[in-house]
Amino acid sequence: MFEGVPDEDAWRNCTTLEGACELTARWLEGSLSYVPGYTAPQYAGENGPMSEALAAINRLGFLTDDSQPGTGMAGGNMQRAFVSGRCTEHSAAVISAVLVETDLVVLVFPPGEAGSGQICVALEGSREFTWLGSSGGPSYAHETYTDWTNETLAKSLAECWELQIFDPVWGRNSKLVSLLQKALITARA
Length: 189
Description:
With 189 residues, the chain is of the alpha+beta class. It has helices at 7-13, 17-29, 49-59, 89-99, 137-148, 151-158, 176-188, and strands spanning 63-68, 71-74, 77-79, 82-87, 105-109, 119-124, 127-132, 161-166. It is globular, with a radius of gyration of 16 Å.
């Protein structure tokens, strides 16, 4: 699809959610050095199984834009596992329906709706460090991706549903990714 095209040009020529998911998967695997909105030249998160799992999630139609593994108390810091991103209405409905039967939490923002809230997902000592629960809505997606890619992709992504999914159990890193993958496989069936 984008073979032999420089990384930034591949994004400028990408016009669909599916294409953006594939490019993000390639970046997570290390075969691309650029993804819009990320200043590091390569994925700075967990290498190995976490990046492979996120690449698979992207290839199943969920465009990840942020994530973190769960980590237990270490040096006063701890995290809840989370993944956030964009998908179709159908995938959002299936993900919500499948995950509602688990103890994972799914925050859903339909296209055209912004949201504001704060759910702490990372602590640095006793200080809250990272939060979920807020969405800039479609104008944020449109403005951001227009700057990094092109108008067609920006409009496509602004029409997607935004999901923020997290494990409420601090430090647990064994449920979220596998359950999200199962939900996405169900959505494709």
